[in-house]
Design a protein that fits this description.
It is a multi-pass membrane protein. By secondary structure, the protein is mainly alpha-helical. The protein has one domain: Growth Hormone, Chain: A (Up-down Bundle), CATH 1.20.1250. The chain contains 17 helices and no strands. α4 packs antiparallel against α5 and α5 packs across α15. The longest helix is centred in the first third of the chain and has 29 residues. The two termini are 30 Å apart.
Length: 322
């Protein structure tokens, strides 16, 4: 809602990133439980603004028939981080212990926080604003800017701002809270997040195949690389057919098959196949995010609240899954 009000994602999103990068660095200097708890709380608080804000930015530039593949490209960053995050962390923890008299786990937060701040500073100069708030004479000509706005008007049949915003930006919050579809979407997303909570235990699941720690971490990468590629093509085809439901259901059906295989056998090959089947659930999850954006196109203030609310509510699934 704040992002929709200020209309400057090129500042809002990078500033959130810079703050959480700084908090991540501060996590590395904590010396007690209270300090760690506070830094983790505020880290999550700042990170929470990024993903729904990024989805909202995409929905301001692309039509409903184009959202699926763009959402997939955005979310593939998260999927790829699942592939290599644990391995990179393992390398830092193994190689940085005692450097400059600091424990390796502290270096992990120093390095990750510094990289976040660097990327955020670059994003200030790369990210665009909304079509209506993009600086005239900037990276778009006036004709191109009007074309971008016109595309969105034609997609929804009405204007994105003046014709749909009634009662001010705060009215979007009330509209979202009163819409029963928002709560059904939130419940559906929460159910999916519970299903995807295996992600937290993926290295442990990989280790059950009997390999050493490094090999087990390496084996985590291929399932998520496969998933990132699959998510892109599934979302692209979903955009082309303008269908969402069947892609989501099919993806999670194969995920269920993967869960059953993992439960029923200790055969190494079968268990590794099950990891691929479980990981590909993210393809359906990405399509679900596009479905949420499609379902609540106007007014923008409501769409902004819906994306944030559904994303926040769904994180209860991680609590249940843990």
């Amino acid at each position: 809602m704040l992002l929709n009000y200020i209309g400057k994602p090129s500042l809002h999103l990078p500033i959130c990133m810079i703050i959480w990068g700084m908090i991540s660095i501060l996590t590395g200097i904590t010396n007690n439980f209270v300090g760690a708890l506070l830094t983790r709380f505020f880290l999550g608080f700042m990170e929470a603004a990024f993903f729904p804000g990024a989805l909202f930015l995409i929905s301001k530039w692309y039509k409903r028939s184009e959202l699926g593949v763009r959402t997939a490209i955005l979310y593939c960053g998260n999927i790829i981080s699942n592939a290599f995050g644990a391995l990179i962390a393992s390398g830092i923890l193994d190689g940085m212990q005692g450097k400059l008299g600091r424990a390796a786990w502290r270096w992990l937060f120093y390095i990750e926080g510094s990289l976040t701040i660097f990327v955020a500073i670059c994003a200030i100069f790369i990210l665009p604003d909304f079509p209506a708030t993009t600086k005239r004479g900037g990276w778009l000509s006036e004709e191109e800017r009007r074309l971008a706005m016109r595309r969105m008007e034609e997609d929804a049949g009405v204007g994105d701002e003046a014709e749909t915003e009634v009662g001010g930006h705060a009215a979007g919050l009330v509209m979202a809270l009163k819409d029963w579809k928002v709560w059904w979407m939130s419940l559906a997303m929460t159910s999916q997040v519970v299903c995807l909570s295996f992600n937290a235990y993926f290295p442990t699941l990989s280790a059950t195949m009997g390999f050493g720690p490094t090999v087990s971490l390496l084996l985590c990468a291929p399932p998520f690389i496969f998933t990132a590629i699959l998510a892109f093509f599934v979302s692209r085809h979903s955009d082309k057919t303008q269908k969402r439901f069947y892609y989501i259901v099919t993806s999670f059906f194969f995920g269920i098959v993967g869960f059953v295989i993992a439960i029923c056998t200790m055969n190494t090959a079968a268990r590794y196949v099950s990891l691929f089947l479980m990981a590909q659930c993210y393809a359906g999850f990405v399509v679900m995010y596009a479905w949420v954006s499609n379902t609540f196109p106007r007014p923008p203030s409501k769409r902004a609240v819906v994306l944030a609310l559904v994303n926040a509510f769904s994180q209860l699934g991680n609590v249940a899954g843990s």
